[in-house]
Amino acid sequence: MRLHDDDPELPAQINILPMIDVIFAILAFLIMSTLTLTRVESLPVNLPGAVTSRLQQNNLDALVTIQPDGAVYLNRDEVTLETLAKRIQTVKGQKPELLVILNADESVNHGLVVEVMDQLRKLEGVKLAIATRPQ
Protein backbone atom coordinates (compact mmCIF):
# COMPACT_ATOMS: atom_id res chain seq x y z
CA MET A 1 0.00 0.00 0.00
CA ARG A 2 1.38 3.35 -1.02
CA LEU A 3 0.50 6.63 0.56
CA HIS A 4 0.19 9.50 -1.77
CA ASP A 5 0.86 12.90 -0.38
CA ASP A 6 -0.91 15.11 -2.83
CA ASP A 7 -1.19 18.05 -0.39
CA PRO A 8 1.71 20.42 -0.49
CA GLU A 9 3.28 20.96 2.90
CA LEU A 10 1.60 23.73 4.82
CA PRO A 11 3.92 26.24 6.45
CA ALA A 12 4.15 26.03 10.24
CA GLN A 13 1.83 28.44 12.01
CA ILE A 14 1.85 29.84 15.48
CA ASN A 15 -1.56 30.77 16.77
CA ILE A 16 -1.04 33.71 19.13
CA LEU A 17 -4.67 34.34 20.07
CA PRO A 18 -4.64 31.99 23.09
CA MET A 19 -1.36 33.56 24.23
CA ILE A 20 -2.89 37.04 24.03
CA ASP A 21 -5.88 35.84 26.08
CA VAL A 22 -3.57 34.50 28.77
CA ILE A 23 -1.52 37.71 28.86
CA PHE A 24 -4.67 39.84 29.22
CA ALA A 25 -5.96 37.59 32.00
CA ILE A 26 -2.66 37.96 33.89
CA LEU A 27 -2.69 41.71 33.33
CA ALA A 28 -6.26 41.99 34.63
CA PHE A 29 -5.31 39.94 37.71
CA LEU A 30 -2.30 42.17 38.44
CA ILE A 31 -4.34 45.35 38.07
CA MET A 32 -7.10 44.07 40.37
CA SER A 33 -4.63 42.82 42.98
CA THR A 34 -2.71 46.12 43.12
CA LEU A 35 -5.93 48.06 43.62
CA THR A 36 -6.54 46.20 46.87
CA LEU A 37 -3.10 47.11 48.25
CA THR A 38 -3.78 50.78 48.89
CA ARG A 39 -3.35 50.82 52.68
CA VAL A 40 -1.05 47.93 53.44
CA GLU A 41 1.33 50.00 55.55
CA SER A 42 -1.18 50.52 58.38
CA LEU A 43 -2.20 48.15 61.12
CA PRO A 44 -5.89 47.22 61.19
CA VAL A 45 -7.92 49.52 63.44
CA ASN A 46 -11.56 50.54 63.54
CA LEU A 47 -11.32 54.20 62.52
CA PRO A 48 -13.96 56.68 63.65
CA GLY A 49 -16.17 58.14 60.95
CA ALA A 50 -16.30 61.79 59.93
CA VAL A 51 -18.48 63.56 57.39
CA THR A 52 -15.79 66.15 56.63
CA SER A 53 -12.95 63.69 56.03
CA ARG A 54 -10.79 64.25 52.92
CA LEU A 55 -8.30 62.10 51.09
CA GLN A 56 -4.68 63.25 51.57
CA GLN A 57 -2.46 62.89 48.50
CA ASN A 58 0.91 63.18 50.21
CA ASN A 59 3.86 60.85 50.45
CA LEU A 60 3.39 58.76 53.54
CA ASP A 61 6.52 58.94 55.66
CA ALA A 62 5.23 58.19 59.15
CA LEU A 63 2.14 56.40 60.34
CA VAL A 64 1.35 56.28 64.06
CA THR A 65 -1.23 53.65 64.98
CA ILE A 66 -2.92 53.29 68.36
CA GLN A 67 -4.46 49.86 68.87
CA PRO A 68 -7.57 49.26 71.03
CA ASP A 69 -5.36 47.83 73.80
CA GLY A 70 -3.35 51.10 73.94
CA ALA A 71 -0.27 49.86 72.10
CA VAL A 72 1.37 52.57 69.98
CA TYR A 73 3.10 51.71 66.69
CA LEU A 74 5.25 53.76 64.35
CA ASN A 75 5.20 52.25 60.85
CA ARG A 76 4.39 48.76 62.23
CA ASP A 77 7.08 48.94 64.96
CA GLU A 78 5.84 49.15 68.54
CA VAL A 79 7.07 52.23 70.42
CA THR A 80 6.45 53.80 73.81
CA LEU A 81 5.26 57.35 74.35
CA GLU A 82 8.70 58.24 75.70
CA THR A 83 10.54 57.03 72.57
CA LEU A 84 7.98 58.22 70.01
CA ALA A 85 9.44 61.71 69.56
CA LYS A 86 12.99 60.39 69.09
CA ARG A 87 11.84 57.79 66.56
CA ILE A 88 9.87 60.43 64.60
CA GLN A 89 12.99 62.63 64.51
CA THR A 90 14.93 59.67 63.11
CA VAL A 91 12.33 59.14 60.37
CA LYS A 92 12.27 62.87 59.60
CA GLY A 93 16.04 63.09 59.24
CA GLN A 94 17.02 66.17 57.23
CA LYS A 95 13.60 66.69 55.66
CA PRO A 96 12.17 70.16 56.31
CA GLU A 97 8.68 68.78 56.84
CA LEU A 98 7.17 65.41 57.75
CA LEU A 99 3.50 64.42 57.59
CA VAL A 100 2.51 62.06 60.39
CA ILE A 101 -0.86 60.33 60.05
CA LEU A 102 -2.46 59.23 63.31
CA ASN A 103 -4.55 56.04 63.07
CA ALA A 104 -6.38 55.64 66.36
CA ASP A 105 -9.04 53.01 66.95
CA GLU A 106 -12.34 54.60 67.89
CA SER A 107 -12.40 52.68 71.18
CA VAL A 108 -9.05 54.10 72.35
CA ASN A 109 -9.11 56.33 75.41
CA HIS A 110 -9.23 59.99 74.36
CA GLY A 111 -6.48 60.82 76.83
CA LEU A 112 -4.02 58.49 75.10
CA VAL A 113 -4.77 60.06 71.72
CA VAL A 114 -4.13 63.52 73.18
CA GLU A 115 -0.85 62.34 74.73
CA VAL A 116 0.36 61.03 71.37
CA MET A 117 -0.73 64.23 69.62
CA ASP A 118 1.07 66.27 72.28
CA GLN A 119 4.30 64.33 71.70
CA LEU A 120 4.04 64.92 67.94
CA ARG A 121 3.19 68.61 68.19
CA LYS A 122 6.34 69.29 70.22
CA LEU A 123 8.47 68.43 67.18
CA GLU A 124 9.41 71.16 64.74
CA GLY A 125 8.50 70.55 61.09
CA VAL A 126 6.04 67.76 61.86
CA LYS A 127 2.52 68.08 60.49
CA LEU A 128 -0.21 65.95 62.00
CA ALA A 129 -3.22 64.43 60.23
CA ILE A 130 -5.84 62.21 61.84
CA ALA A 131 -7.14 59.25 59.84
CA THR A 132 -10.90 58.73 59.67
CA ARG A 133 -13.24 56.76 57.49
CA PRO A 134 -15.80 58.64 55.40
CA GLN A 135 -19.42 58.39 56.50
Description:
It is a single chain. A hairpin with a 5-residue loop joins strand 2 and strand 3 (72-74). The protein is α/β, with parallel strands linked by helices. The chain has a domain at 49-134: Nucleotidyltransferase, domain 5, CATH 3.30.420.270. It has helices at residues 17-35, 81-92, 110-121; strands at 49-50, 62-66, 72-74, 77-79, 98-104, 126-130, 133-134. The termini are far apart. It has a 5-stranded mixed sheet, with helices on one face. Strands 1-7 form a two-stranded parallel sheet. The chain is 32% helix and 20% strand.
**Number of DSSP-assigned strands:** 7
- Please estimate the helix content: 25-40%
User: What's the mean pLDDT score?
Assistant: 79
Largest sheet: 5 strands, mixed
Distance between the termini: 84 Å
CATH class of the domain at 49-134: Alpha Beta
Layout of helices and strands, plus pairs?
Blueprint: H1 17-35, E1 49-50, E2 62-66, E3 72-74, E4 77-79, H2 81-92, E5 98-104, H3 110-121, E6 126-130, E7 133-134
Parallel strand pairs: 1-7, 2-5, 5-6
Antiparallel strand pairs: 2-3, 3-4
Keywords:
elongated, Nucleotidyltransferase, domain 5, 5-stranded mixed beta sheet, 7 strands, two-stranded parallel ribbon, 32% helix, alpha/beta, 135 residues
